[in-house]
Each structure stands twice: as C-alpha cells, then as structure tokens.
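Field reference: sequence -> structure
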Amino acid sequence: MNIAVILAGGSGSRLGGTLPKQFLKVAGKKIIEHTIDVFENNDLIDEIAIVSKEEFISDVEDIVVTNQYRKVKKVLTGGKERYDSSLSAIAAYDDDDINLLLHDAVRPLVNDRIINDCIEALKSYRAVDVAIKTTDTIIEVDNDNCISMIPPRRVLRNGQTPQCFKRGVIRKAYEIALKDPNFVTTDDCGVVRKYLPEEPVYVVNGEVFNMKVTYMEDLFLLDKLYQLRSISSTKEVLDISRQVLPNKVMVVFGGSMGIGEETVKLARELGAVVYSFSRSQNGVDITNADQVRQTLHDIHQRNGHIDYVVCTPGILIKQPLSAISYEDITSSININYLGAVIVAKESFEYLRQTKGSLIFYTSSSYTRGRMLYSIYSSTKAAIVNLVQALSEEWFGFDVRINCINPERTRTPMRLNSFGIEPEGSLLEPKYVAIATINTLVSKYSGQVIDVRR
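Structure field:
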C-alpha cells in the first residue's frame, strides 16, 4: 500500500498570527485542502493519514467531511516537534512493508509526477527523498560570521517533500535515534541517514514550484502560482476516455470548424452522442442567452441528460486599441467572454444532474497582455478567472470546469489573422480535440490544460 501522510502539525509561528499556516486560504481553499486534493486524486495513493495538533483535530475532521475525501482514513494527533508527527503516523500502522510518503501540509503544489516517481523509486530503494539542484552558492560561516567553507554546488540540493520510506526502515531509524540523548533532527531522511548509514537514500527530482509556505511573502507567491498553474496534456486518447464516452451526451458550441469540428468528430468516433451548434451551422449564437437556453433545453428533452458541454467560439482582432472600433470591441468581448458566461450559467443545472463537465478555451496570452492583443488577451485572462472561480462554486455539486490552453493552432481564426504560416509551425487541432476529450472525463476542475506540439 502507498499511504500519504500529510504533516499538518506546524504552528505557523514564522508566518505570524494565531492561525497555523496550513489553515490559511490561498486560491479559494485552505492550503491543506489543496495538498489533500493532490493525494486524493492520485491513482497510486491508496490511503491518506493527516497528522495535526490536538487543538486543530476537529478543524481537520471538518475539512475531511466537507470535501468528502474518500482516501483519508486516519486523522492523528501530533506533538511539539515535527518528528513527533512522523512518529505518530509510523505508530498508526503495523505493516513494515507499506510505503509511507511523509509530506508537508504547506507544500500544496506537489504534483503527480513527483508522487509517481517516489513510488516508482520505492520499488528499488527503501528510503527516498525529493530535492532540486541548488542554484545559489551556499556558504558555511564560523562563529565570527566569516566564510569557513564554500561547498561545490554540483553536489548540493535543496530538500523538499514528500520523504518516502518502507515503514520498517523509518521505524527502525527512529527506534535507534530516540535512544540517543543528543538526538536532534529537522527531517526524516536525516534520521535514516544518521542512524541507518548503511541504508541508501535515493533522491527524486523535485520541482521549483513545490515550495513550502513559511513567510507571509510566500502566500502572495503561492497565490500567483495557482493563478498561472497549468497541466500538460497528452497527445493520445486515454483509455478512460474510450471507456467513459460511449452514449454520453455532449453539446459543442462552435462545432462547425477548427477545434470544435475536430472535437465533434473525435467524440463521435469514441461513441458519444454529439450535438454541434454555431452561428454558421444552425444559427445558434452563444451571446444570445435565450438561444443557448432553448438549445440545451431541447437536447435535454430529447435525451434526458447532458453530460458534457464544450464552448469553442472566439474571435481575434489584432489591432492597437486606439484603432479598434467600439463595434469590434463589443463583439470581441461578447463572443470571447460574455458567451462563455452564458453557456456556463445555462449549462450548470444540466451538468449538476449528471455530475458533468464543461470546457472553455484560453490562450497563452492570458498570463500577460500583449501589444495589439489588448482585448483578446484580457478576455482570455477573464476565461481563466471564470473557470477558477466556478470550479470553487460548483465543487459541492461535483460539476467540473476547465479550460484548454493550446499553443498557436492551425484554425480558420488563425488563418484569417496571420495568413499562411510555415508548414509544421502550428499545432494541429486534432491534438486540442484529444486534450478536450481527456479533460472532460478527468477528475480535473479549475485547471488550465496546456496543449503543445
């Protein structure tokens, strides 16, 4: 078994204030909720244990109940020191062959790649750490605060979590350590390294963004990282898509060309019942709430359910703001943003019934506005914010909403704005369609899905 142990016993004293940092909100959720989410949604994690200070046990239990976490099986009481929390988790299990992944509750940006690599490494090693290469020069100073040594950077790493062990190894290391009257430690791998020196500790590559919230400034950085966070897509249709999609009802707005057309074609090949709408195809305008409402109503009446909604329409007017007419400004905002708001609002009740999924599309320019793209970039940033906000609003209803972020794609909109571009320089829309399908059936919500060549 792979058991994630989330260490939430910290007091947050360095952050200031009375509330431990793991209970502070970032990007709409408590930090600890973001952390639990990652392990809850990882397919290789079998169980989660959370270790907290006694006075906050009820708060953790409320979080588990509210979020309906299915993998959280134990909420344990920690102690004064960090290692007391590790010992509490070690003592809560009795099988020495299980894998314990000990992770800081205040590292919410850990990802599946790190977790999966740790679990894979545990097949060959019994102790595994996570670290990144040190980029700054590290100096050692003497009692007079003068440099005494400068270790070579090539052998230095900045440690992260999770730190992972076969339970038998970390249990034995602590048994020896606790008999040492001079025992002092800051991390679990250090205990193994010192008291079981014959046991190799393998190092998995971490990520720069797998940061630990320590100071107040970290909260602002973490919030920005969540705003810009994205997930890379695969170019293959996942098995889950082939299994789940047959007979599901999908509505695609903007399905007559480009990404929408490819999505319609692929979804039908995979067995979905797909309805395609656009202004040119059948006169359905997403900026007209009545038309969108009637369209969805008719499909629901015909099929009894709607499982997925995809909204692809968008226009790009590449001009300085001073040169764009108000008519074009209004049209851009209406199609790129207002239409998405209407589709989301009118789709919600149907998707609530089926615990369905909604997809919008953004652009790489959402992270920073670009010259000549002021209206387009700002509407695409608005789409990301809309998705992130609605993912929180709809969480309790099990309605998922995400947005796809394709790089430059060979679509009619691209051709109209840039003309004929070099062969191979653009992403093919079929890959965006694959990302769309895989995301629709995934557990993701509130995510930006990058699609690259």
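Note: The CA atoms of residues 314 and 336 lie 5 Å apart.
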